Amino acid sequence: MIENGISVRANKVLVARSAGAGSVVGYNYMDMSYINTNGAWVETGLNASHMVGPHHVLFEGNYGQNADSDNTHGNSIYLTFFRNHLRGVRAPFDNQAGGRIDDATQTRNGPKRCAGLMAYSYWMSFVGNVLGASGQMQGWAYEASFTDVKPGIWMLGWDSVKPYPTDAQVAATVLRHGNFDYVTNTVKWSPGIADRTLPNSLYLTRKPAFFEAGSGYTWPWVDSLGATKLYKLPAKARYDAGTPFTQP
Fold first, then answer.
1. Which of 58, 109, 203, 218 has its CA 20 to 30 A from that of 4?
2. How many helices (H) and strands (E) does the chain have?
3. How does pLDDT run across 68-125, given as a tens digit for each residue?
């Protein structure tokens, strides 16, 4: 269980190397990941990958710059992303090698995606997520490939090695149901699933105690079906408040 934590400004904010089956990553703030000192490369955010074998990991209620599954050293399968906010770009930060990184203004930074699965990432599920940010998706496409000029809400089956092929089986096996995106401003459903109700949680039976901290927080904080799509994540509120910390 990785819950109510903060992981930012790392080469990888999270990896699962041939491990992780049955794990839960819940209600964490994960952002600003980049590769080595190359701040322009938008690294994988929420993921259980980076060596062959991870499977059946639940990501619920997190904030991430994106969700993906890299194919470095092998693939991952059967991951579930439920009620996360996948922003698509990182918060601005200072690169350890020097210079300011700001995906919102630096067009060469990439690949920019909200939900991307690299080649060989099969049988993944995305349910009830909110993708992108209101009023900030100009120039974005709903579906994109690695070689497209435009960033995309979805980038499925991509490969970063020339000739940059797309693995069509990734899109063919992914389950997408009840996700809201700020490009089309709609909730999209899987045509093969009649049930359009979303539970509050896939692992909790009641509001977690850390949502009662301070003045309290709305739970679930991600509501793809509601009039208000996003409330506050306690972990991100703590990060944004800085130090010395006062509970928002």
1. 109
2. 2, 18
3. 999 999 999 999 999 999 999 999 999 988 899 999 999 999 999 999 999 999 999 9
Which residues, 6 or more positions from 231, have their beta carbon under 8 angstroms from its beta carbon? Answer: 217, 218, 221, 222, 223
Q: How far apart are the first and last CA of the chain?
A: 25
**3-class state of residue 83 by DSSP:** coil
For residues 19 and 54, is the Cβ–Cβ distance under 8 A?
yes
Contacting residues for 1 by C-beta, under 8 A, at least 6 apart: 23, 24, 26
Give the separation between CA 10 and CA 7, rounded to whole angstroms: 7
CA 145 to chain centre: 17
Q: What DSSP element (H or E) covers 176?
A: strand 175-177
Q: Is the entire prediction scored with pTM above 0.90?
A: yes
State how far the Cα of 168 lies from the Cα of 128, in Å rounded to an integer: 23
Q: Which helix (H) or strand (E) holds 237?
A: helix 234-241
